Structures are given as structure tokens and as C-alpha cells.
């Protein structure tokens, strides 16, 4: 009888250990997914501000139907500007966002989630980068 109880205790310990490992992995995956969702939400917020800038007349601080001078300076996006000279890179706890291309009718933003393995705060260029194209009436994620 003692051996059966000992085997039962060992079996329960192994099962609890396996369940703990599975729970930790599941939590890690959920945290990564939540971070990517937060980055997408930040990009949507940037897109909203950029589209407002596009529509606003220049005399009111807007772009007068032109994205080519859009920067993160003065935009309602939470974060800290990383490149004070050009104001094209901003970082917050979710990730780093860089304006990689600007033209009259669109902006391209590269977003690097902070949950990426090769993430460095203030820099884009990770394996998990999201690229978004913002147009006057559209937001498209390219990856």
C-alpha cells in the first residue's frame, strides 16, 4: 500500500509540473499577442492623428492635404520622441514606431513590438515588425 501511495504522489507531482509548464507557455503567448494588439492600436492612433493632420489647413498647423511634412512632433501619440532632429521615431512601452516613408498622399510606418526577441528600444528592424501604410481615408497593415 505504501508503494502505491508513493507512486501516486510522484505521478501527481509530474502532472502538476507539466500543467505548470503549459500554463507558463500559454501565458507567454497571450502576453506577446496582447503586445502586438497594443502596437496595432498605437498605429491606428497614429493613423488617426496623421489623417487629421492631412485634412487640417496649414494655417492651423496641418498639412493642407499633404502628408510629406508629417512628424511625431505635436501628435497625440503616447511615447517619447527618439530622434529630436527629425521627429520620425517614437517609442513607448508597447514598442518603437518609425516613419519610414512620406509622400503627398501616404505615410509608411514601421512598428517594432517590444515583445520581439531582438527588440531594442528606440530602434526598428526586428523580425516581428509591422508595416502600415496610412492614406487620407485608409489604414493598411502590410505585414
UniProtKB/TrEMBL annotation:
Region (Disordered): 110-129
Organism encoding this protein: Rhodohalobacter barkolensis
Protein name: Type II secretion system protein
